[in-house]
Design a protein that fits this description.
ATP12-like; 3-stranded antiparallel sheet; globular; mainly alpha; 10 helices; single chain; ATP12-like fold; 3 strands
């Protein structure tokens, strides 16, 4: 799409709404589903305004990560909040960091030293005690643990659930995602934990171009989601 505006501003939301909106030549921007994009924090509105201002002659939606996550909150989370919560919480039953290898010893030790502290954090912070397995066979988690994870997920706003969903599905771990939302992990740490096994293989066998492109995409998604959370709360 060709750029059709010159002036980008942040304004207070009108009417009975609280929050902020971004305008393009005095016209408020809407979500892709044509919903009013009312942002809960000025810092987020400014970040989205910066993305629009940075566009060149052509608008490239893929370059506007903050806009995408905000629009997802409005278009996809709010209309089906309970379903989104269920989707995120379901990862507790198959969480990446609960599935460990039995060999080689150095990878076993790496998983234990890097993943276990996050599981311990989940137990102390949210009261969810997850069981680990040393094989790919499914392990049953307790109803109490899964209920605690769902309660933790449900405690977040629609604008927080958007990055939480992105983090969970990209990392394959609701535990890692919840740790980011709580400020226990930053984006770099979340990426490293989610790619621990792959990083081990790269150390041994190297990284081809396709794998690097995929890895870069995962990093960008996790990093942008973590940044969104931080900006939202500034």
């Amino acid at each position: 799409m060709k750029r059709f505006y010159e002036d980008v501003r942040v304004v207070a939301a009108g009417g009975d709404n609280t929050g902020f909106q971004v305008t393009l030549d005095d016209r408020v921007i809407k979500s892709p589903a044509k919903q009013d994009l009312i942002l809960p924090s000025k810092s987020l509105a400014l970040a989205i305004a910066d993305e629009w201002q940075a566009q060149g002659e052509k608008i490239i939606p893929a370059s506007m990560a903050m806009m995408t996550l905000a629009a997802t909150a409005v278009d996809r989370v709010t209309p089906q909040r309970r379903h989104v919560i269920d989707m995120i919480a379901a990862y507790g039953g198959t969480d990446l960091i609960c599935y460990r290898v039995s060999e080689p010893a150095d990878l076993v030790n790496r998983q234990q030293s890097r993943w276990q502290p996050v599981l311990d954090w989940l137990a102390s912070h949210h009261g969810a005690h997850l069981v680990i397995a040393d094989s790919l066979m499914p392990v049953a988690q307790s109803e109490q643990a899964l209920a605690a994870i769902r309660a933790a997920v449900a405690s977040y706003s629609d604008f927080e659930l958007s990055p939480l969903h992105a983090l969970t599905t990209t990392a394959g771990s609701v535990v890692i995602a919840l740790a980011v939302l709580a400020g226990h992990l930053d984006g770099d740490a979340a990426f490293e934990l989610s790619q621990l096994d792959e990083s081990y293989q790269i150390e041994r066998w190297g990284l081809d171009d396709d794998a690097k492109q995929r890895r870069d995409g995962i990093y960008n998604t996790i990093d942008n989601a973590a940044k969104f959370v931080q900006i939202l709360r500034d």
